[in-house]
Amino acid sequence: MEHETLSSHKYQKPIRLKGYDYTSDAAYAITMRAKYHCYILCHPHLRHILETEWTNLAQRFPGVEPATFMVMPDHVHCMLIIHEEAKGTFSVSQVIGAYKSIVFKVWRTHIQETGINLPMSIWQRRFYEHVVRDDSDFAAQTAYILNNPIKAALDKPKS
């Protein structure tokens, strides 16, 4: 089923698994992209905010474990684990939505306090998730996240 998005007015396929319960105890590989594919995530203070608030998610959402985390210039890769005790309590969308909102608010405050001329808006509206199937898939997703900076450097055109 296709639906029209508010931001682009283009038709896009849904990116969530039909019928899957995203409050299930499982591991999820997540990718969040920067708005307009800009390289804003390289800013040192924003990077600090991203890392700090990712770690703080465990306090805000008991039973949710913010795991492997990697900031790239225009996107973030991470693993999110919903444990048995949180099953049915928080969805992946709720946790990621809260994370993105908190990062935005802290970043906006920093911009307002310092007067730096950088965009306040950070995130694309949606995010990509992969439901991890088993231990082998978990290892593969974790390796992908950790090796992404190396792969990105190798993929850069040589001048």
TrEMBL record:
<dbReference type="Pfam" id="PF01797">
    <property type="entry name" value="Y1_Tnp"/>
</dbReference>
<dbReference type="InterPro" id="IPR052715">
    <property type="entry name" value="RAYT_transposase"/>
</dbReference>
<dbReference type="InterPro" id="IPR002686">
    <property type="entry name" value="Transposase_17"/>
</dbReference>
<feature type="domain" description="Transposase IS200-like">
    <location>
        <begin position="23"/>
        <end position="148"/>
    </location>
</feature>
<protein>
    <recommendedName>
        <fullName>Transposase IS200-like domain-containing protein</fullName>
    </recommendedName>
</protein>
<dbReference type="GO" id="GO:0006313">
    <property type="term" value="P:DNA transposition"/>
</dbReference>
<dbReference type="GO" id="GO:0043565">
    <property type="term" value="F:sequence-specific DNA binding"/>
</dbReference>
<dbReference type="GO" id="GO:0004803">
    <property type="term" value="F:transposase activity"/>
</dbReference>
<dbReference type="InterPro" id="IPR036515">
    <property type="entry name" value="Transposase_17_sf"/>
</dbReference>
